[in-house]
Amino acid sequence: MKNVLNPKWIFIINTLPIVVLFFLFAGEFNIIKSLLNEENLYLWKTFGLTLGILELLNFGYALYLTIKKQSVSVWYGVAALLLYIPFLYLYGYHIDEIFPSSIPQWMMSGNIIVYVGTFLMPTLAYSLFVLVYHFTSDAKEHQSWKNFLIAFIIPVAGYLFSQIILPLWRLNSGIFGIHSLLILIIVGTLAFLFFIVRAVYVLAIKKATVLQQYQFAWKIPITIVLPLIGLAVNNGLLFNKFETTDSGIFGNFTNYWFYILAFFNGVFLCLPNLENKMYRVFLFLGRSLTFAYTFYFFLVFLPFLPISVVAIIAIGSGFLMLTPLLLFVLHINELSKDFSFLKSCFSKRAIWATFFLGFLVLPLLISISYLKDKIVLDEALNYLYSPNFSKSYAIDKGSLQITLNTIKKQKERNGDFIFGTQTPYLSAYFNWLVLNNLTVSDAKINTIENVFFGTTSFQINRDRIQNESVKITNIASKSTFDKKQNAWKSWIDLEITNTSENTWFSEYATTIDLPEGAWISDYYLFVGKKKEMGILAEKKSAMWVFSNIRNENKDPCILYYQSANKVAFRVFPFAKNEVRRTGIEILHKEPITFKIDNKTVKLVNNEENIIKENNTSDAVIYVSSKQKQSLKKVQRKPYFHFLVDVSKAKRKYSPQFINRIEAALISNPNLAQNAKISFVNSYIKTISLNKDWKQTYKNQIFEGGFYLDRAVRTALFKTYKTQKATYPVLIVVTDSLQKAVLDKDFSDLKCAFPESDFFFDLTQNEELQPHSLVSNPVEQIKDSAKLAFNQSVLEYKTGNQTFYLPNNNQASIVLKKDIFKLDTNEIKPKNWQSGLMMQGKWYSQSLHPEISDNEWLNLVKYSFISKVMTPVTSYLVVENEAQKAILKKKQEQVLANNKALDLGEEVQRMSEPNLLILISLLGIVLWYSTRVKFRMLK
Q1: Where is the chain membrane-spanning (predicted)?
Q2: If we measure between CA atoms, which residue out of 219, 384, 379 comes closest to residue 287?
Q3: Are 477 and 605 in contact (CB under 8 A)?
Q4: How many other CB atoms sit within 10 Å of the CB of residue 563?
Q5: Which pLDDT band holds residue 588 (cuts at 50, 70, 90)?
Q6: Contact by Cβ (8 Å): 244, 414
Q7: Which terminus in the chain has less CB density within 10 A, N or C?
Q8: What is the pLDDT of residues 146-175, one digit of tens each?
Q9: Looking at residues 501-510, what average pLDDT do you find?
Q10: How far is CA 367 from CA 219, 254, 363, 856, 901, in A?
Q11: Are β-strands 518-527 and 579-588 bridged in parallel, bridged antiparallel, or unpaired?
């Protein structure tokens, strides 16, 4: 144990944790500083400066000793305890002023409040070890039983104090009484830990020869029995006190590997140290490997050591909290013996290399397991959100199920004592390595499970935001023609009134169907009398911030795309009878008319300044409504494309589905020519509807969910790519369209269905029920007139390419190239042509989602440069600098990670509890409970 006096330990247990602590607090301070008053700021500076000075003193002292090749003095242990304990105490006392309740919890990452206790606890533990070593000299004979006795007396005295003295304590009604009680708890805990560590040290080191023949009698209980009992108690397997299954008092240790490793760790420590070279090499390897297990639990329970006395007094099994400490001391002792024996056979460098390699085995295996989870999850997310419609996929469903189960457990935060279903440190490591500290939302997990397994885990509550009492009471618009870019800039000024008589806050929410070629380029909202301009931000970050601000009844407002041209518009909150003013700027090329709620907005009443020429580039063409009037009308030949449900448990419907298809073919012989059929579950298999189609159908594997979204998108993509004089009429064949995986519309692929916006559900009655491709696809459209298949389209030719456009009075956008590059220099602020190019980019990645990971980042960048909102950005109004700071932080986090990951339902990290908070909590609870008992006895 003499190695504990090496000053290099101070760099590891003090300098490094405090540097990390400063880094974490600096990030939080930069966000919340605008919400702190002068008193709060004074405390931040005082505690920060004090901790910085303490850290520099430690660093300077360690550096001096290292240069002088001296050992750590006993006075360091004394000084560290006398300095850091008051620091932690005062930090706990002022915690409400350092983090005032006025700061929203969602602005602070994880349990930032308890980080101080977590990161300073190693210094306190190290100081204790230094004192133990210095006060257990070789020159004096020490009795381990005396130290055990003193350690035993301390919790007994604490219990008697709580039962006899505490009820009579007259100072407990004031702040002095509480301070005195907590100081007694701290002093008693330090004394208890000193004597228990000293007893183990004397037992393992000083009395090793005497106890060698009785080693199994004391080693087996400490290294095997107590760890297994501790796991069982924590997991609720013994006494059934906590009734936990996937959670525990101090975290989720239910995985069977914890029990296996606890057993083998104990076995390696109990095996005798024989004088055999190969045997000791094997034993050293085994002990090095399981030391990672011992070290892990030592770290986990290190912050809880200060409450061990209180826990022993309050809970009979509280002594189990000391097991990791005892095990840690014994494990180091056994490794030291192995090292002493092996250094006569091998070089120190080889022994240290062997130790580190063995120590890293378990962390490496855990990392490999997590990386496998990451690979499987990324494959599933890419298949769902960044697929290549021309490629076949094969996802490992077994591994995916395991990965999803792990993610769901990591997301849970139940009401158990401290960690709930989280595994200390390992959960944080999983979230960092697999999810990059983001999450997979419940809705996405439902989608993944529905696609691959045909089941869901979560009940998703829809956000009912429309309030009928909040309406637009006035609309004014002003349009200005910009000759430089040959386009219009129009401001729409809105006055919105809450007509409700109740005192609850209301919200205005609607959608705006923007015409093709029109883009939002600015926004404002009056917050009180101040006109706040909108911030253009990445969409997911903006929506996350909006949702959290809204939950506080503050002043957010947001604009974002729900689909290709449909924009959601939300303003919150509205007090009783409140009138609010807001405005939206729109860039457009020609006169446009659209609706906001039931109000018609017409921008530009004359056409004298409108440029008539075709607006084109090498990749994107804008075809105006005027230009479309001169295009040739043609009729393409339709054909049936059946999308048949072959998901889990649907084999029994096969005869029915076959009959329906045959009836549809007989009723519509013209559409039967060149017909296709796709068999749809997690994947899609498409064949021509030839004479063998029934046999192919019967040979399908019925599994997973009915992934109708992918089937429709694949069919539309292939239709667009061919640009033939034929087009598919999509017919869905299933027992329930409501059960299909169909979460959004297909308006981003509208270039692929110019004839009609409809697909059809082939019902039990062999009828074709129409559904919309551009709005709420699951809902039936009750309009039989839409069943005609003779719609004409407009033929647009450019070069040797032919495109088919909808025959309507609206503009269209044509992609001359599916995939094209866009130079950043082509993007100009508030420029209509830039908006056109970005819209083309959006349609490009809708056709080719496999490029969307990179193009998503580019689109966000282009949007920021141009100030034009796109489907990947959002205009958001917030009311203070802290909200802007957290928006910036979350935006950076999102843009640095997989676009399919989410901010919502964020998993908290670093849940390790603060020393003083826990001492205070348990001390006060103990004081209160004994006082109640005393009153009852009266």
Answers
A1: 9-27, 47-67, 74-92, 112-136, 148-169, 181-204, 216-236, 256-274, 281-301, 307-330, 350-371, 913-930
A2: 219
A3: no
A4: 18
A5: very high
A6: no
A7: C
A8: 766 776 677 667 666 666 666 655 554 556
A9: 81
A10: 31, 19, 6, 29, 20
A11: antiparallel
Q: Are 555 and 610 in contact (CB under 8 A)?
A: no
Look at 78 and 190; give whichever has higher pLDDT: 78
- How far CA 80 is from CA of 120, 317, 451, 833, in Å, comes to 10, 31, 57, 66
Task: Of 167-171, 224-228, 368-372, 785-789, give the lowest mean pLDDT range.
Answer: 167-171
Q: How many CB atoms neighbour CB 432 within 10 A?
A: 13
Q: What is the mean pLDDT of residues 18-32?
A: 88
Partners of residue 489 on adjacent β-strands: 480, 587
Q: How far apart are CA 252 and CA 369, in angstroms?
A: 18
Q: Give the DSSP letter of residue 849.
A: G
pLDDT digits (tens, 9 = 90+) for 64-83: 898 988 888 889 888 988 88
Give, for 658, the enclosing helix (H) or strand (E): helix 654-667
Pairing outcome for strands 637-645 and 676-680: parallel
| Residue pointed to by tokens 């062997």 | 354
Task: List Cα–Cα distances, 357 to 225, 290, 292, 351, 360, in angstroms.
Answer: 28, 12, 11, 10, 5
Helix or strand or coil: residue 617? Answer: coil
Amino acid at site 479 = S
pLDDT of 919: 41
Can you tell me which residue has the tokens 């101090």?
A: 250
Residue 28 tokens read as 């939080």
Residue 928 pLDDT: 40
- Comparing CA positions, the residue from 916, 912, 907, 918 lying closest to residue 109 is 907
803 beta partners: 796
Cα 612 from Cα 486, distance rounded (Å): 10
Tell me how crowded residue 709 is: count the other CB atoms within 10 A of its CB.
20
Residue 793 near residue 636 (C-beta atoms within 8 A): yes
Specify which residues 599 forms β-bridges with: 596
**Given phi > 0 = left and psi -120 to 50 = alpha, else beta, which region is 239?**
left
The answer to whether 253 and 232 are in contact (CB under 8 A) is: no
Residues pairing with 601 in the sheet:
594
Peptide bond into 515 cis (omega under 30): no
Please give the Cα distance from 182 to 179 (Å, whole number). 5
pLDDT of residue 140: 60
Judge whether 554 and 879 are in contact, CB under 8 Å: yes
Strand partners, 571: 508, 557
Cα atoms in the 13 Å half-sphere on the side-chain side of 765 = 3
Structure-token pair, residue 201: 């040290």
Query: Taking the domain 636-791, which CATH number applies?
Result: 3.40.50
CA dist 214 to 228, 422, 629, 714, Å?
22, 39, 101, 73
If you search the block for the tokens 């939300």, which residue do you land on? 570
Burial of 281 (0-12, 13-18, 19+ CB in 10 A): middle
CB atoms within 10 A of CB 829: 11
* Contact assessment for residue 486 and residue 515, using Cβ atoms and an 8 Å cutoff: no
- CA dist., res. 532 & res. 788, Å (int): 50
Q: Which residue type occupies 160?
A: L
User: Model-level pTM?
Assistant: 0.81
- The phi and psi torsions of 197 (rounded to 5 degrees) equal -65, -40
Give the integer Cα–Cα distance in Å for 901 and 541. Answer: 12
The structural domains of the chain, with segments of one domain joined by +, span: 1-135, 365-439, 636-791
**Structure tokens of 657?**
């589905």
For residue 782, the tally of other CB atoms under 10 A from its CB is: 8
212 contacts 203 by C-beta, under 8 angstroms: no
pLDDT per residue as tens digits for the range 259-292: 999 999 999 999 988 888 999 999 999 999 999 9
First and final C-alpha spacing in the chain? 53
Per-residue pLDDT, averaged over 615-636, amounts to 86
Q: Are 900 and 384 in contact (CB under 8 A)?
A: yes
Q: How far apart are CA 374 and CA 6, in angstroms?
A: 40
* 382 has a pLDDT exceeding 90: yes
